[in-house]
Amino acid sequence: SQQGEEDPQALSIQEGENATMNCSYKTSINNLQWYRQNSGRGLVHLILIRSNEREKHSGRLRVTLDTSKKSSSLLITASRAADTASYFCAKDGGSNYKLTFGKGTLLTVNP
Amino acid sequence: AAGVIQSPRHLIKEKRETATLKCYPIPRHDTVYWYQQGPGQDPQFLISFYEKMQSDKGSIPDRFSAQQFSDYHSELNMSSLELGDSALYFCASSLAGNEQYFGPGTRLTVT
To answer: How close, in Å, is residue A50 to chain B by CA atoms?
Structure first.
């Protein structure tokens, strides 16, 4: 299985602080995609990072990828209460592009 | 921008009944995916189609089947429903190898 671990499972911070979530995987990947999900709602695509990329930015989001360590991290800077959600990394490692999701990190940003 | 459309948004069925979920992908996307997310779980890949042909299959029960039609919309058919089939069912679409965009999901409740 390509499923790895995400840590932490839960993270609680104050508004304005930075939040870092980590994702590891076991086999090679084509790309890795990060998603946000509010409770019981849809999955919102955040960033895709390809295996030949090391870092990508989008607004307050920064994603890094270390293929030698088979790990990725998502950094949210200057967090807001509206960032409260579950964050999933999803690995695309096969020839047919299906995604394998991690268990997710539940982020709570306290106002 | 157009998003992935799923219908119905909510569905309540009794055990042993049949359900059909519909998905309309983003225009010009060539790949459609179906995922199942149980309560408190991460999404699990069910099946995918590339250019209307089945391209990959995950842990999809034999009671489930899916197809993609000439207009690119897809349907997931679920028969002999069981209580354990209660979940959020997501459809996603992409240009192969690129970002997968998810629909809002269909919440299926089996009673």
So the answer is: 9
